[in-house]
Amino acid sequence: MADSIETRLRVAGVTLPEAAAPAANYVPYVVQGRLLQTSGQLPIDAGKLAVVGKLGAGVSLEDGQAAARLCAINILAQANAALGGDWRRVNRLLKLTVFVASDASFTEQHKVANGASDFLVEILGDKGRHSRSAVGVPALPLDATVEIEALFEID
Predict the structure, then answer these.
(1) Which H or E run includes 74?
(2) Does the 5-12+26-154 domain belong in CATH 1.20.58.100?
(3) With a threshold of 0.85, does the pTM exceed it?
């Protein structure tokens, strides 16, 4: 099927990693009724934090967007684990909450968040159109540049 999520991932050159295990006392996702909530995902690539630091203080907008894209890939890895690989269960990505480690003068968190939003719409199609908050914060765990959590409606 030309428009399947698996096909879109392949065309985008993305292989989903294994869903990351929690780094503290929490679960990586929760399924409650028809909702799937992921815990915040960091820009981890090949088991390592790929982008660290703050936007507006040494990290470029482009690097922030790349970090957000990696977070989105890790969100999909968690969703894949939660759904046992059955992407047909995804009805809609409802909301992203994007946290951007930012210098006080940086005000383009929304542009950083587009790195995730654009990728998720590319992969999920219309099911990926979502509401969103993009919030600047002074620091994130492990000095990550971006952390993103997601809420899905599922069957």
Answers:
(1) helix 61-82
(2) no
(3) yes
